[in-house]
Design brief:
This protein is of the alpha/beta class. It has a single domain, classed as Dihydrofolate Reductase, subunit A, CATH 3.40.430. It has helices at residues 42-52, 62-71, 78-85, 110-120, 130-139, and strands at 3-11, 57-61, 88-91, 103-105, 123-127, 144-150, 169-172, 177-178, 184-191. Strands 1, 2, 3, 4, 5, 6, 7, 8 and 9 form a nine-stranded mixed β-sheet that branches. 27% of the residues are buried. This is Dihydrofolate reductase.
């Protein structure tokens, strides 16, 4: 059964809206579109690129699909070639026209559709797609979460965990990577069970 990877870029206060460009998503008057660009460096570029090398399918929400479809077919380089080549699957409640090569609309039953994708592909990546990712968190329909946290506070904008999530255990599976400009990558595996609790005893820490 294939893996579903979630790849997200967020500010330190959890904003994930429009990291790529000023006009990417201006909903609710968001004024910081493209906030990721000044903090992109060689370490981030290498890590993001290497994290996608095994991808054999791309899974996106409708808004992110439209953004990607208007951009990546006109780009060159390894990442563009990969994204343009692999099958693209789109989660949408509507019936959009999917003009990007090798794109398919998921059926109305997203859970069933994702099970079918797992049988068809080894490594399915979800990039950005804030709204769709909420469904994956709620249903625990993901296997790995790669979270890039950037050293800025945006104050407003769509947040990755704005409405809370189902209590979930995660396991850090790689050493944390910090880039020269302060972006920090965490890569987690979905773990069994829900978070446990305990009491900090006086013998377990110093005052």
């Amino acid at each position: 059964m294939g893996f579903i990877h979630i790849d997200m870029f967020v500010s330190l206060d959890g904003v994930a809206q429009a990291p790529g460009g000023p006009e990417e998503d201006t909903e609710d008057g968001f004024a910081f579109g493209g906030w990721q660009a000044p903090l992109w460096d060689e370490v981030v570029d290498d890590q993001v690129g290497s994290g996608l090398t095994e991808m054999d399918a791309l899974l996106l929400g409708r808004r992110t699909y439209d953004i990607f479809a208007s951009y990546w077919p006109h780009q060159d380089g390894n990442t563009a070639q990969l994204l343009n080549r692999v099958p693209k699957y789109v989660a949408s409640r509507q019936a959009p026209i999917l003009g990007w090569h090798n794109s398919t609309l998921l059926g109305p039953d997203v859970v069933e559709a994702l099970h079918e994708l797992r049988d068809r592909h080894e490594n399915i990546h979800v990039i950005d797609s804030i709204d769709f990712v909420q469904t994956l968190f709620a249903k625990q329909l993901f296997d790995r979460l790669t979270l890039w946290v950037y050293p800025i506070l945006l104050g407003s904008g769509k947040k990755l965990f704005a409405n809370g999530v189902v209590p979930t255990n995660l396991k850090l599976i790689e050493p944390v990577v910090a880039s020269p400009k302060g972006a920090v990558m965490h890569r987690y595996l979905l773990a069994n069970g829900t978070p446990s609790v305990g009491e900090m005893s006086s013998g377990g820490h110093e005052d």
